[in-house]
Please model this.
Amino acid sequence: MTRKLEVVATGALALVEDLGRPGLAATGVGRSGAADRRSLRLANRLVANPEGAAGIEVVFGGLAVRAHGLLTVALSGAPAPADVDGTPVGHHALITLYPGQVLRLGVPPTGLRTYLAVRGGIAVEPVLGSRSTDVLSGLGPEKLSPGTILPVGTEPAELPLIDVAPVAVPPGDDVVLRAVPGPRADFFTDVTALARTTWTASSRSDRVGMRLEGEPLERASLEELPSEGLVRGAVQVPPGGEPVLFLADHPVTGGYPVAAVVLDADVDRAAQVRPGQRVRFVLVPPPWKDTP
Amino acid sequence: MRVLPCGDSGLLLEVDGLPEVLALADAVRAAQPEGILDVVPAARTVLLSVEPGTDLAALRRTVLDLDVRPGAAPPEGERVVIEVVYDGPDLEEVGELTGLGPEGVVEAHTGTPWRAAFGGFAPGFAYLVGGDPRLRVPRREVSRTSVPAGSVGLAGEFSGVYPRSSPGGWQLIGHTDAELWSMERGALLRPGCTVVFKAVR
Model:
């Protein structure tokens, strides 16, 4: 029997994501991939997949999937309560789904995005080397909807070695992100104001970026900036002064100044911030020195 | 060259203008420094984004030591020929603006090879530079709400081909059937490649 996952329910949004399509940014195609790469990697390691195998990224829980064939899966990221046909199961642990069994996720008490890895990986057709859905460019598979059938790949030769991994769950209180002053920090009267303000994550946030609400950052000059390349984690400040922290599906270039760049590891934590949650930045020096 | 910080994700290299961008991007692509995931040229900058954990201090030294020669002949590289039917709605006007006449515009557009300098705007779109300087024309005063895919246009020092139908303010001189973008192959024109236009009927 071909192994498949049948989507029964999706909640707010459920997407197939792997680690994205690097190397194409110069042609206008962003990296995309899991918003919280660390959690996807962990879930994949638990089922002994390659770290970059495609899994399901679930926003605010609510996913339900039925197993076609015998499947081994694992959950990571936002700790949505989960059950298999009504029997509770844990995160960061191997879960066996017998044919016909349904794995169901509730709403996570903290965090935003839960990852489901399946041994063998979600095997939808890749687009430009990746199975990720990029919500900005529209590349990759359609968002999941009830009735979607997802093929599952061949199980890897490696066997799962860990039953349960102890992992810190995303916090429910203020999230502190480390950031380096950005390439255009000098476009602002005082970039350290970014770190003195307690920001609130807006409900208009998505995989493209987290919009932050708070005391607007003041521009030192309104000098025009030709568009330039952006990295994931860039904190860009549009004319209104309220920053956008770019996440997985950020545009490849942008014309507003970047005040700071969040350290790569902390961008994964940023992807777990819920709308309404408070965010603070700590400015740290760049990991290199500006001396010849 | 100024090396500007981008956290631990990369370096943004800022230079004086497009000739420097082209030469710098050429030099980086030729040197292939370790850890680089993406080289993203733009109008005045080249972004190098790196794999996590890459030694950015070392990368910075490597970049500052590169032999960058603005205006030098481009390295031997990919060459793309694009067949164009020169029947664009703005061909007459461009002929008048440049004083070349429609036939002169076609001759100038096909006579000098262009180079893809940088992308942006839409997947598969490339800003082409280095063509005949007599072809510099302003954008249209009023943008079109819809420019068909495959339209070949001019704006300022740039030429370009619309990969898909979109609004646009470029002066349209022709159209091509070439597939600028496909899901299987991605972009036809990658920054750094040489582009030659060929007139067809």
About this structure: The mean pLDDT of chain B is 94.
